[in-house]
Amino acid sequence: MSKSTSKPITLKEVAEAAGVSVSTASRALSGKAEAYRISRATEQSVQAAAKRLQFSPSLLAKSLRSQRTKLLGVVLPNVANPFFAAIAREITLAAEENEFSVLLADSQENSETEVHLVEQLQARQIEGLVVCPVGIAHQHLSKLAKQNLPLVLVDRGFDHKDLVTVTSNHRDGAREATTLLLESGHQKIGVLQGLPDTLPNTERLVGVRDAFAEHDVPFDPTLIAGNHFDEASGYQAAYKLLSDHPEITALFAFSNQNALGALRAAAELGRTVPEDLSLIAFDDHPFAAYLAAPMTSVCQDVTQLGRLAARLLIEQIKTGQPPQQKQHQIPVQLINRSSIKNIE
Q1: What confidence tens digit (pLDDT) does each residue in 140-161 have?
Q2: Right CATH number for 170-301 from 3.30.870.10, 3.40.50.2300, 3.30.930.10, 3.40.47.10?
Q3: Cβ neighbours of 92 (radius 10 Å)
Q4: Model confidence over 48-89: pLDDT tens digits?
Q5: 69-168+302-330 — its CATH code?
Q6: Cβ distance 199 to 158 under 8 Å?
Q7: What pTM value is reported for the model?
Q8: Are strands 332-335 and 296-300 parallel, antiparallel or unpaired?
Q9: Which residue among 2, 47, 175, 243 sits deepest, i.e. has the most Cβ atoms within 10 Å of its Cβ?
Q10: 11-57, what's its fold?
């Protein structure tokens, strides 16, 4: 026995049910009744017919008529990372407030995948794009900006003045975190870096060196390890540093995921935080305050990062012009918990 299928109700059927023309029904349902001098009674009749027939307007047909899709693209390097997920949430909320829908894509920390996803989103006729880049290649993004597609980069920006970018103050945050370790008596500090040559990693390393220089303490570059912002890199880097340099008394993890890996490595090597090893992370995390030793963290304002990115994007769409100020930097906050031991 075949299952019966019902076809979607058309605008023509709504018009017939209300006893009006298709154009009148369309205008009544799109909020243009007053502009076209359609009576309130007719407008209500059309709306009642649409509700009774459970009519859903075709977004495709609407976009063809208006030449607008009301779609925004968002590309993240890792959707599962709470930091990027929180940014995406703020962008989505701001988009909904302005009657946009969001298409979300995950580049899986791969630059080639990022390029492909951007091309796919363009094919969907997005009106604007927010990218949290992998942070290695920017040519495809510079090309988009020259094509006048509204574009905002978040977090891992580039030293490229023509790209609208929203980042945290990575340098000051790293300087403040390292200063806290140094002033707690730590001089042998291992650094668990993220993806080399990306803007956050580079700026955080500069901040670390700044703090050492300000305290007249020699900085040992052999105590830097790691090649990514993920947990695996944090684990491998921490295990190697702690094994090769048992004199290390503190670790500075450049991401919350790096910090998770460091905790696992420390446990396997029999070192307890903070009794045997102090630990600080750049990026706060929902778990940080609930660890056995609540983790001291440099907290990025993900709410502000996401909201500002969305505002800059939507303003570009509405005005057709890029903002005058293209580079935006959001302050960070050091949250001092219980993962650092004073050894002075």
Answers
A1: 999 888 888 999 999 998 887 8
A2: 3.40.50.2300
A3: 18
A4: 998 898 877 655 455 445 456 789 999 999 999 889 999 999
A5: 3.40.50.2300
A6: yes
A7: 0.80
A8: antiparallel
A9: 175
A10: 434 Repressor (Amino-terminal Domain) (1.10.260)
- Paired sense of beta strands 189-192 and 224-225, if any: parallel
Answer yes or no: same fold for 69-168+302-330 and 170-301.
yes
Q: What residues does each domain of the chain span?
A: 11-57, 69-168+302-330, 170-301
- Whether 330 and 308 have beta carbons less than 8 Å apart is answered as yes
Do residues 203 and 161 lie in contact, with contact meaning Cβ atoms separated by under 8 Å?
no
Residue for token pair 């302005």: 98
Output 195-199 pairs: Cβ under 8 A, ≥24 positions apart: 195/109, 195/134, 195/135, 195/136, 195/156, 195/227, 195/228, 195/229, 196/227, 197/135, 197/136, 198/134, 198/135, 198/136, 198/156, 199/135, 199/156, 199/157, 199/158, 199/159, 199/167, 199/170
Q: Using CA atoms, how far apart are residues 203 and 177, in angstroms rounded to an integer?
A: 13
What is residue 173's three-state secondary structure?
Answer: helix
